[in-house]
Amino acid sequence: MIETQEHKELRDTVRRFVETEINPHATDWDAAGEIPLHDLFARLGKLGLLGISRPREYGGLALDYSFEMVMAEEMGAAHSPSFGMALGAHTNMATPALARFGSDALRAEFLAPAIAGQMVASIAVSEPHAGSDVAAIRTTARSDGDDYVINGQKMWITNSTQADFFCVLANTGDGDRHGNKSLIVVPSNTPGVTVGGKLQKIGMRGSDTAPIFFEDVRVPKRYRIGDESRGFTYQMQQFQEERLYGAAMAIKGLELCVTSTIEYTRDRQAFGQPILDNQVVHFALAEMQTEVEALRALLWRATEAYVAGEDVTLLASMAKLKAGRLSRTIPDQCLQFWGGMGYVEESIINRLYRDLRIVPIGGGADEVMQGIICKLMGIAPGRG
């Protein structure tokens, strides 16, 4: 896919935002366990970066999805991967189905302020016993006249303590677990919604992640996104953008592992020479960068197909799997070359090592991606 001048201009805008508004504060946000999302999203909203591919009538730029990928890739260069995850939850996880299938009134009430940066959005799908197995969720939304009454619990919810609304997947019927679910917008200030304590995580410490509890939460049925019982299908479609975003954001984070390691090993002396001058080190770094470029090529092939309206389930799953694999190996190899300094939290490689570890877990674990790929290749068990 050829990058246009418009792509380059957007890339420059995002890069400046990362350098001036994110990187200087990354350490403080990690220590605080929270990022001031309302403030930062308001600034991003003024730049038009929260609705890049969303409809103009709701404040979006109506650009094709390749521009979303440019933003995601540049956000990956931030010294705070936590912010990129928070942003992705808002733009590419909680709102794609709302933008595509929500009623005009629902989009005016929630999508427009999310694009403007006036509201923070959160996706509430996973549960303590249902992470990658989305169909196993137990949260229910019982019909009661013109309302739904929601009961259940959600787990590992990004942006949870600051969210103005959640995009909740709940069971609205019985029977087939793939055909009994609906996506429902639930404002966070609705009576019966409780946000639990922040989870203490190995990485992504700047991201406020917590469980959500719903106890007899009453919301009008007009808050449902699209048709009843189509929620699982909508969520699977929504996952494609989430997985493309996750793969795109990993690219620059992985490159930062490589470039920061080059800088450190060039300056660090051992046995009378820079560590970088050891062949085992510079050969390894060359191969790492080659792997990153292979991921970038796969991602952009998938993006081009997505923009063309093709089903990219296979390519998006492959890109997500590749990003997950590299997010485990590259930070680990690089940290080894930093030696003792890599083991202390003040080093950039330490944060990247911890934060990128979520890539092969969140948004569908590596093993789930492998299962999807095998199914689409026709080599899943029982299919020959």
UniProtKB/TrEMBL annotation:
SUPFAM superfamilies: Acyl-CoA dehydrogenase C-terminal domain-like, Acyl-CoA dehydrogenase NM domain-like. Residues 4-117 form the Acyl-CoA dehydrogenase/oxidase N-terminal domain. Its cofactor is FAD. Residues 123-217 form the Acyl-CoA oxidase/dehydrogenase middle domain. One of its GO terms (biological process) is fatty acid beta-oxidation using acyl-CoA dehydrogenase. Residues 230-375 form the Acyl-CoA dehydrogenase/oxidase C-terminal domain. One of its GO terms (molecular function) is flavin adenine dinucleotide binding. One of its GO terms (cellular component) is cytoplasm. Keywords: FAD, Flavoprotein, Oxidoreductase. It holds the Pfam family Acyl-CoA_dh_1. PANTHER family: ACYL-COA DEHYDROGENASE 6, MEDIUM-CHAIN SPECIFIC ACYL-COA DEHYDROGENASE, MITOCHONDRIAL-RELATED. Belongs to the acyl-CoA dehydrogenase family. This is Citronellyl-CoA dehydrogenase. It comes from Jhaorihella thermophila.
